[in-house]
Write a structure and sequence with these properties.
Elements (H helix, E strand, L loop, with lengths): L4 E7 L4 E7 L5 E5 L2 E5 L4 E3 L1 H12 L3 E6 L8 E2 L1 H8 L2 E5 L2 H11 L15 E3 L4 E4 L2 E7 L8 E5 L3 E5 L19 H12 L7 E3 L35 E4 L7 E4 L38
Length: 292
Amino acid sequence: MPAPQVQSFFDEQTATFSYVVFQPGQAECAVIDPVLDYDPKAGRTSTAGADAIIAFIREHGLTVDWLLETHAHADHLSAAAYIKNTLGGRLAIGQHIGTVQEVFKGIFNLEKDFRTDGSQFDHLFSDGETFRIGNMKATALHVPGHTPADMAYCIEGLGVFVGDTLFMPDVGTARCDFPGGDAARLYAGIKRLLAMPDDTRLYLCHDYPPRVGTNSAAPRWPPSAPAISTCATASAKPTLSPCAPSGTSHWKCRCLFCRPSSSTSAAANPCRPKTMECATSRFRLTNCRQPA
């Protein structure tokens, strides 16, 4: 059976990744954390990003089985309802979303009859609950800390969609100063994710650009990258590749972000630029170690 594949879509305004997970030969797919475009200056929304996701799904003859939210997002609006109304599918989030709704009902002065039981969703996942996307087996993991309701979705043969827990090594982790946030619980959730096997691939929710005045603010992980790449497949562990960001110190790092197999430079160094920074990163997402 063909390995599951993933297509990413990057929203530059919020530095957010949305994903379509699918398996060649089957129709069902899942959409993870879709973004609804919002112009804060005009106070208007648009559906350009969501329409790109819809176009991809239609082009590949897929049907939406699940619309998966990792958490309630404070930095962008969700396009899940729009995609559901257009293509169908079941909208799901973690079962503790009611706690978040209760907090923000008061903060945003929502109407009195707004329900804080998560009933706006089709399904509320519990920790460790298994489900299927067509033939693909998936597990919902409760990883609170950023919010009380954060979830990660582990899809067999593909990896883990970690939501707002881990970010890229140059950023670190999600914030935990929102109402209901908890640094200790976030730390415990991150340890749970990093305790997974070394060949586990992590699909992040954000890739924030460098600060103003640094180099390019372009995303380090191009949204057009294909799912299958030179240094990671469903049946092979990631390649160990040399990293030398500066100076003469050389390290070996677990390659998490890979160039397309068609890239001419992939043979020389299959790691993406992010993993080239691992020698100076204090956060060991890339599992750096000195070579023997």
